[in-house]
Design goal:
By secondary structure, the chain is mainly alpha-helical. The protein is globular and about 60 Å long.
Length: 218
C-alpha cells in the first residue's frame, strides 16, 4: 500500500521551474527603480528643495527622464546585436512604458501646473513655440506605442505591422532631442550628447540591416 502511494506521489506533476535566463523579476525591478526619481522629485517639491523656479525644475527633470528612458529602450536591440546579450530585450517594454509615463507627467505638469489648464494658452504655445510643438508631437507618437505594447496587440496587429508601428519610437526620440535642443538657450552640450547617442543607435541598426541583407544574398 505504501509502495502504491509512493508511486502515485512520484507520478504527480511537479510545478514547472521557470526557464533559465528568463529573469522574471527583471522588468518589475526596472519599473520600481524607474519610479524612484519621481518619488525623489516629489519629496524635493514637498520640502521646497526645487529652487526658486520649482515648476521649471520639475519640468526639466521629468522631460529629461522621459528622453533618457526612451533612448535606453531604443538601445536594447543594438546592445543585443553588438554584445549578444538578451536581457536588454526583456526590459525594453518596461523602459518604453516608463518613458511614456514620464512624458505624460512632463506634459501634465506643464498643462496643469504651469498653464493652469488654460486650453487657449496651451494651444497658442504649441502652435507658436517650435520646441513645445516638437515635444507635443513626440508625446502623441508615443501614445499608440504604449497602447499596442501588450502581447495581445502584437498578435492582433501581426509582427510585421507591429514592428513598423513601433519604429515611430525613433521618430519620437528624434523629436525629443529637438525639443531639448530648442529648449536650452546657451549651452547645447547635453542635448548634443543625446543626439550623438541616438545617431549611434541608428548606425548600429543600419549596419546590422546591411550585413543581414548581404548574408541573405550570399
Amino acid at each position: 500500500m505504501k509502495a502504491a502511494r509512493g508511486g502515485a506521489a512520484a507520478q504527480r506533476p511537479r510545478a514547472a521551474a521557470p526557464p533559465r535566463g528568463k529573469l522574471p523579476w527583471l522588468p518589475p525591478a526596472i519599473v520600481t527603480g524607474g519610479l524612484i526619481p519621481l518619488v525623489v522629485l516629489g519629496l524635493r517639491a514637498f520640502t521646497g528643495a526645487l529652487g526658486p523656479n520649482a515648476v521649471a525644475e520639475a519640468l526639466n527633470q521629468l522631460g529629461l527622464l522621459a528622453l533618457v528612458l526612451l533612448i535606453a529602450s531604443l538601445a536594447a536591440t543594438p546592445l543585443k546585436l553588438v554584445s549578444g546579450w538578451t536581457f536588454p530585450l526583456r526590459i525594453r517594454k518596461a523602459l518604453g512604458l516608463l518613458a511614456f509615463f514620464y512624458a505624460c507627467a512632463h506634459f501634465l505638469t506643464y498643462a496643469g501646473v504651469d498653464q493652469g489648464l488654460d486650453v487657449r494658452a496651451i494651444v497658442e504655445d504649441i502652435t507658436e513655440r517650435p520646441f513645445i510643438l516638437a515635444g507635443f508631437v513626440a508625446l502623441l507618437l508615443l501614445v499608440p506605442l504604449a497602447a499596442t505594447s501588450t502581447a495581445r496587440m502584437l498578435k492582433r496587429l501581426g509582427a510585421a505591422r507591429w514592428k513598423r508601428l513601433h519604429r515611430l519610437a525613433y521618430v519620437a526620440a528624434v523629436l525629443g532631442v529637438v525639443h531639448f535642443f530648442l529648449r536650452v538657450k546657451k549651452d547645447a552640450t547635453e542635448p548634443m550628447i543625446y543626439a550623438a547617442l541616438l545617431a549611434l543607435l541608428f548606425a548600429v541598426r543600419v549596419a546590422s540591416a546591411v550585413l543581414h541583407r548581404r548574408a541573405a544574398r550570399r
